[in-house]
Specification:
mainly alpha, 7 helices, about 65% helix, single chain
Amino acid sequence: MTRALAAAPDAITAACFVVLWVAPFALGVGGVRNAMLVMLVEFILMHAAGALGGIVFAERTTRTRRLVSIAGMGMFYLVFVGSFALAFKAWWPFLAFGWLLVGKFVLAFDPARTPAQRREQMMQRWGVTALSYLLGVFVTVMVPLPRLGITADVVPRLGLSGSGLWVEKPHTVIAFGAIYFGLLAWHALRQARAAAKAPAAAPPLSGSV
C-alpha cells in the first residue's frame, strides 16, 4: 500500500487535468492557463529528471560532489522555470517544479530496494516519461479530441495570450496533461507492484561499514 502511493502525485495531477477538461473554471479562472504552464514546466523537468537521476545514482562519486552537482543542475533548470514564472507573472511554477519532481523521484528512495534496483526503476521511469510525452503530443495534434467543457465560446474567457494550437484549442493541452500524467501514474503503480513482489534488499551485515 505504501509503495502504491508512488502513483499518487501523477494520479492527482492527471485528475486535475480531467476536471479542467470537463469544467474549465472548476480550479479557478486561471485553471486552464495554469495547466498549460504545468505542461511547459514538465517539459523542462523531463530533461532534468534524466540528468539528476544520473547524478543521484552515479557510482564512485563522493557525497559532497554529488550534492554539489545536484545543486548546480537544479539551479540550471530553475533558470528555465524562472523564465516561465516571469512570462506568466506568477511564482507558483517553482512549486509546480517541486511537486512534479516528487513524482519523478518518489520511487528512487525506496529503502527496501538496492541501489541497483532503484537505478533500474529510475531508468525505466525516464524512458516511459519521454515516450508518454511524445505519445501525448502525437495524440493531441493528430487525433480529433472532444472539447467537453472547453467550448469555442469559453476559450476567450480563459485569459490566454499568444497564438498556436494550445492557445487556439486549449482543450488539446488539457487532454495532453490528462493522458500524459495518467500514463505516468499507471506506470508508477506497476513499478510499485513489481517492487512489492521482488525480493527486498538484504540488510547490511552486523559490524560492516
